Amino acid sequence: MMADTGMFELSGKVAVVTGGNGGIGRGIAIGLAKAGAKVAVLARNEQRNRDTLAELRRIGNPAMALKLDVSRRADLKPALDAVERELGPVDILVNNAAFAVLKGLLDHTEEDWDSVIETDLTSCFLLSKYAAQSMIPRRTGKIINVASVGGYKGTPIYPSYGVSKGGLLQLTRCLAIELAPHNIQVNSLAPGWTNTDMTDWIRNDPKYAAVKQEMITRTPIGRFAEPDEMAGAAVFLASAASNFVTGADIIVDGGFFIR
Ligand SMILES: NC(=O)c1ccc[n+]([C@@H]2O[C@H](COP(=O)([O-])OP(=O)(O)OC[C@H]3O[C@@H](n4cnc5c(N)ncnc54)[C@H](OP(=O)(O)O)[C@@H]3O)[C@@H](O)[C@H]2O)c1
């Protein structure tokens, strides 16, 4: 018998992945494209945008890359409009772009706080609003917020990042309830420690070698994740397989959270 994986099929769907040119976002963008979606990656670095676009095009579906800084509020709606003009109405929004400022409370400036909250949380609120404006009349849509295990746990090293991720988990629940009557599901996935540029400091700075070892020891699977290991949860949350799942968070952390 032929396997029927139709419930995970994304052919004809249009997906937007912020920060889709590197790390976890790139892993998710490629995973969505392999499941059949037309993918738009929105991020700042044009060389990485071009490289990711080339990879998406090799998969074979229409794709695009757009230079966007998600902290520039006025640019968000025009970016989604540009995607809709080129690929069609947005069915799947992945709010993935984020960064962290590694400074404790006393060193954390107001500018640090504002820029992290703007990039990691406010952009997700605004992009969700603009995507929902397009999804509601069509009675279809999936919004996926890339949160973090750091949204649950207190950490001493990046208060604004932890707050942005905790806020994103709560934004997910609020929007899930509001958008459920419109057949739009809103969920998050929470990566654990993953091998990306964001974790360069802990992976490669000898000053943090002991912390890195502690994180690996606390992870039952015993290693950091690879970025493409986030793609499966994203495809599930983007597909019909998750049509009765909303307001949920899928923790993809090798078991770090349960220890
Ligand atoms: N790595 C981990 O261990 C880990 C753990 C838990 C959660 N996460 C979450 O997973 C997501 C992806 O993280 P990652 O580890 O893949 O990070 P990363 O390797 O640093 O990649 C971040 C991506 O976001 C983009 N980006 C950053 N600021 C942006 C902005 N202002 N506007 C547009 N794009 C922006 C970057 O592209 P440009 O620089 O070209 O804009 C890049 O593509 C984030 O939400 C992060 O919080 C990561």
- Whole-number tally of structural domains: 1
The count of helical stretches stands at 8
**Could you say what the CATH topology is called?**
Rossmann fold
Low-confidence stretches: none
Backbone shape: globular
What is the CATH C level class, in words?
Alpha Beta
Protein model, in words:
It is globular and about 50 Å long. The chain has one domain: Rossmann fold, CATH 3.40.50.720. The model has no long low-confidence stretch (mean pLDDT 97). The longest helix is centred in the middle third of the chain and has 29 residues. The termini are far apart. Helix 1 packs across helix 8 and helix 4 runs parallel beside helix 5. By secondary structure, it is of the alpha/beta class. A seven-stranded parallel sheet has the order 3-2-1-4-5-6-7, with helices on both faces. It binds NADP nicotinamide-adenine-dinucleotide phosphate. NADP nicotinamide-adenine-dinucleotide phosphate binds next to helix 1.
Helices and strands in order:
Blueprint: E1 14-18, H1 23-34, E2 38-43, H2 46-59, E3 63-67, H3 76-86, E4 92-95, H4 110-138, E5 141-146, H5 159-179, E6 184-191, H6 200-204, H7 209-217, H8 231-238, E7 249-252
Parallel strand pairs: 1-2, 1-4, 2-3, 4-5, 5-6, 6-7
Helix pairs in contact: 1-2, 1-8, 4-5
